[in-house]
């Protein structure tokens, strides 16, 4: 393939841009423009191609790569090595943002070494919801000036997001402390009544401080004092009971039931079940059992049998014997995972109402346990 030479004007202007030590470079392929960000502002070069636009832009990238990395074809090799390493030096991250390559910007945005300033440059180089989510997973960005900027973008973009899992991730990320004000938070919460994906984001981000709190269960005042001593001694079962009987726990249960009433996708359903199991994780220190629902119910019943229950659970049963069914429900919910879904989702890509019909034998009994913990149904 013959090498493409840049026009004299383009070559000169690009070399001047690079000599002025830009902070980031962005290439607009559709408009054939190269943008450079510097401390003094933004510069723009309109290209004058001497060949097919795609090939000419590739030649522009080779010139930039040769200047930044010392190798015209160096970008892919460098990127692969840096990505495999998992962490990059700050100077390497800064170089990635000078290549005019979207994939290089993504690699920088994903790096745990990204600073607030480099995040600002990366955002200038590529304003994109995925990049915003990637960067808001970095504490340095969340705590810096860019955190609220990225969160505001994701909130504005939420109505245009089409994938439920990305909606959930966006909501979870913007609810990190200090990113959005309470009014914006409440606006998203009110929409969650029709958007289970939004509600799941709230459950993940702030399970104990959900808006519109429900009252504590009617018997909370009766049982909480009986369990105080056990909680003080570090009993996880007493802690779990008081947590779900309290107002925040009842609000959490109500919101989980809302999500499981109409989950839109298989992934969101699984994420919800795993989130529920995580909420009760101290009750199952051995981890996820990967059991079907039938086996999980049997396991939970056996676990709460006083003859074989562990000592902390026996102590809890002795203090509040009438809450045995609630303890069974807590043990059951702590073991939820893909095991309960596998028999019903094997070899199917169903979503929406068809998926929910397939999962009714699982989600129905789980919802009854949630309702039981809210004092609204028998177990």
Can you walk through the features of this model?
The chain has 379 residues and is mainly alpha-helical. It folds into 3 domains: 8-126, no CATH class; 146-205, no CATH class; 222-373, no CATH class. 62% of the residues lie in helices and 4% in strands. It is built from 21 helices and 3 strands. It has helices at 8-19, 53-69, 74-85, 90-96, 102-110, 116-125, 129-136, 139-142, 146-157, 164-174, 182-191, 196-205, 220-232, 236-245, 247-261, 266-279, 293-303, 311-319, 324-333, 338-345, 352-373, and strands at residues 24-28, 33-38, 41-46. Strands 1-2-3 form a 3-stranded antiparallel sheet, with helices on both faces. A hairpin with a 4-residue loop joins strand 1 and strand 2. Helix 9 packs antiparallel against helix 10 (164-174), helix 15 (247-261) runs antiparallel to helix 21 (352-373) and helix 20 runs antiparallel to helix 21 (352-373). The longest helix is centred in the C-terminal third of the chain and has 22 residues, at 352-373. It is elongated.
Radius of gyration: 27 Å
Order of helix and strand elements from N to C terminus: HEEEHHHHHHHHHHHHHHHHHHHH
Total DSSP E strands: 3
Q: What's the number of domains? A: 3
Strand order of the largest sheet: 1-2-3
Structural category is mainly alpha
Helical segment tally?
A: 21
Morphology call:
elongated
Question: Mean pLDDT score, rounded?
Answer: 93
Task: Note poorly predicted spans.
Answer: none
Tell me what portion of residues adopts beta-strand conformation: under 5%
Kindly report how far apart the N and C termini lie: 73 Å
């Amino acid at each position: 393939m013959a090498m493409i030479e840049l026009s004299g004007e383009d070559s000169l202007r690009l070399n001047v841009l690079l000599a002025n030590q830009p902070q980031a470079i962005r290439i607009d392929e559709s408009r054939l423009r190269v943008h450079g960000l510097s401390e003094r502002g933004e510069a723009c070069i309109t290209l004058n191609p001497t060949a097919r636009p795609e090939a000419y832009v590739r030649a522009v990238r080779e010139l930039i790569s040769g200047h930044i990395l010392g190798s015209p074809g160096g970008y892919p090799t460098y990127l692969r090595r840096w990505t495999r390493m998992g962490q990059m030096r700050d100077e390497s991250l800064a170089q990635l943002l000078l290549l005019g390559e979207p994939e290089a910007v993504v690699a920088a945005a994903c790096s745990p070494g990204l600073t607030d300033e480099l995040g600002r440059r990366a955002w200038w180089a590529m304003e994109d919801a995925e990049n915003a989510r990637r960067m808001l997973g970095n504490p340095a960005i969340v705590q810096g000036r860019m955190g609220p900027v990225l969160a505001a973008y994701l909130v504005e973009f939420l109505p245009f997001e089409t994938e439920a899992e990305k909606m959930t991730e966006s909501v979870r990320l913007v609810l990190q402390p200090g990113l959005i004000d309470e009014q914006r938070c409440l606006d998203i919460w009110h929409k969650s009544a029709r958007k289970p994906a939004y509600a799941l984001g709230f459950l993940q981000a702030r399970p104990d401080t959900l808006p519109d709190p429900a009252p504590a269960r009617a018997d909370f005042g009766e049982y909480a004092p009986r369990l105080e001593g056990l909680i003080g001694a570090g009993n996880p079962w007493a802690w779990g009971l008081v947590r779900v009987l309290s107002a925040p726990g009842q609000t959490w249960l109500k919101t989980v039931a809302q999500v499981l009433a109409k989950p839109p996708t298989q992934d969101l359903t699984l994420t919800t079940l795993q989130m529920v199991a995580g909420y009760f994780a101290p009750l199952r220190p051995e981890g996820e059992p990967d059991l079907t629902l039938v086996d999980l119910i049997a396991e939970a019943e056996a676990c709460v049998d006083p003859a074989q229950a562990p000592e902390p659970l026996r102590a809890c049963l002795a203090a509040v014997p009438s809450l045995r069914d609630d303890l069974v429900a807590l043990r059951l919910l702590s073991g939820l995972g893909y095991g309960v879904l596998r028999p019903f989702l094997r070899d199917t890509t169903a979503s929406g109402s068809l998926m929910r019909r397939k999962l009714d034998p699982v989600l129905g009994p789980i919802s009854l346990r949630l309702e039981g913990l809210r004092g609204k149904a028998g177990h």
